[in-house]
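Here is the promised in-class demo. Please do not try to memorize the tokens; focus on the logic of going from shape to residues.
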């Protein structure tokens, strides 16, 4: 149950609007009509988000806000104000307030802003547990795994968490990069300061800079008020930029300057603003290859890559797969009200026969589907959806063929099934994933046809050999050494 605290001296209208927007039992709404009463509730009730009126009978909302920050800087505070008080609310946001809303409240906007603030609060407060063994089902936000690659991840988090340097987290989609970012934050010196996350691939290009750096009133069409961006709002804390490989080049340049100088300007503004933010970035892209193609700034890559953590794909994690299956079956059984307590060896064998191109995110989706179909205390192969049940590992390629990862051709994973499965998940980069899946199948098939000869394959595809090599590297496809040598010889003679 989320706890929303409203500090407002309006005796009826605003509290009624907030209770209507956030009804019980999913939400608990507490109301205080003075600043001092609100501060007592902050100290005792541990609210997840605070709605704070700027004009209170005993003290100003800004004074209350400063005292809230002394209690816990992680509580998102949303100011409720009239247009006349907007400048004060903006000043508060420069010191870390989450957002501000105008009276009379728009319920849709209220739900959206408070909902986003509750998610921010959850990210800061929900502990990220790292364990080499299975955990209790009620443990959420857990990084589970004991394979050698995951042990290296844990060591890396321990080495760099308390250092004030940027961290780049790499790995395929669905491997748990956000959990690693949260673990870095929670074990850092900034653990009591704000933590904000932004998915660069989910924000339209024309709005991304405004989200990051803010904008001045009138900076562009629709900019009807000044906006404080994430870098200013998160001053003193940690900012997690997910899918930074999809950030436009113009924004990359501004990020580079911020890392070098800890300063920036809002969109449409000339005032130089300084900030103190630790940056954690993540991507499923091959940034060196993107840099070679001119899609990512090499100097930004070098800045971000001061310390890198690579998350292994699920297919490389060995016995972790069974541990994760058992962990999620117990957890999701509890969440979905099912009584499944074990997974049969036959179901485990079927799960092991699949390469999991969507990694842990896909595994979670498949297990939820299976549990909804299940009857009885055991998870049987028949309960697994067709996507997992009928998929077998690809046959080993011949010595003259491209060696594709197991999630490429030969899996029986049709494009329609691939898209349909992801439509039922929380994926936010379906366009990129689908194109990558098509490339995996197409390139591997063509290279099998040409016996692994990249020169011939590039001619068939109608692309340059260098482009083919970069795509192969980006997708994890590889060619045997002898074929590579033959290809170079044929290229040299052409």
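The designed amino acids, position by position:
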């Amino acid at each position: 149950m989320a706890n929303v605290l409203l500090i407002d001296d309006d005796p009826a209208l605003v509290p009624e609007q907030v209770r209507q927007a956030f009804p019980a039992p999913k939400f608990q709404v507490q109301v205080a009509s003075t600043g001092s009463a609100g501060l007592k509730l902050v100290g005792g009730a541990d609210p997840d988000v605070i709605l704070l009126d700027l004009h209170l009978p005993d003290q100003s909302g800004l004074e209350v806000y400063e005292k809230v920050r002394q209690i816990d800087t992680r509580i998102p505070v949303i100011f409720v104000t009239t247009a006349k008080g907007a400048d004060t609310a903006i000043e508060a946001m420069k010191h870390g307030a989450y957002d501000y809303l105008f009276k009379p409240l728009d319920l849709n906007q209220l739900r959206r802003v408070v909902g986003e603030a509750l998610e921010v609060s959850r990210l800061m407060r929900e502990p990220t547990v790292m364990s080499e063994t299975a955990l209790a089902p009620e443990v959420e936000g857990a990084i589970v795994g004991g394979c050698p690659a995951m042990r290296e991840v844990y060591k890396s988090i321990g080495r760099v968490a308390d250092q004030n340097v940027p961290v780049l987290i790499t790995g395929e989609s669905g491997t748990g990069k956000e959990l690693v970012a949260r673990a870095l934050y929670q074990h850092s010196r900034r653990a009591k300061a704000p933590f904000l996350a932004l998915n660069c691939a989910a924000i339209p290009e024309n709005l991304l800079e405004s989200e990051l750096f803010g904008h001045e009133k009138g900076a562009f069409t629709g900019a009807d008020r000044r906006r404080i961006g994430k870098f200013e709002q998160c001053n003193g804390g940690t900012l997690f930029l997910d899918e930074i490989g999809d950030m436009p080049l113009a924004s990359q340049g501004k990020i580079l300057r911020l890392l070098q100088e800890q300063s920036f300007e809002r969109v449409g503004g000339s005032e130089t603003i300084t900030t103190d933010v630790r940056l954690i970035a993540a991507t499923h892209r091959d940034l060196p290859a993107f840099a070679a193609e001119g899609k990512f700034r090499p100097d930004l890559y070098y800045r971000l890559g001061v310390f890198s953590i690579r998350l292994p794909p699920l297919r490389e994690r060995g016995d972790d797969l069974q541990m994760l299956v058992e962990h999620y079956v117990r957890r999701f059984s509890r969440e979905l009200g099912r009584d499944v307590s074990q997974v049969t060896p036959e179901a485990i064998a079927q799960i092991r026969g699949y390469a999991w191109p969507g990694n842990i995110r896909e595994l979670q989706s498949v297990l939820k589907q299976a549990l909804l179909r299940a009857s009885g205390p055991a998870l049987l192969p028949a309960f697994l959806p067709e996507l997992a049940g009928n998929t077998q590992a690809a046959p080993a390629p011949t010595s003259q063929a491209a060696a594709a990862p197991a999630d490429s051709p030969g899996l029986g994973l049709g494009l329609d099934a691939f898209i349909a499965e992801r439509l039922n998940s929380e994926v936010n980069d379906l366009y990129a994933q689908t194109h990558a899946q098509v490339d995996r199948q197409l390139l591997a098939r063509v290279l099998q046809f040409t016996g692994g000869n990249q020169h011939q394959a590039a001619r068939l595809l109608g692309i340059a050999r260098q482009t083919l090599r970069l795509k192969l590297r980006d997708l994890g496809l590889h060619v045997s050494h002898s074929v590579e040598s033959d290809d170079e010889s044929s290229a040299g003679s052409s």
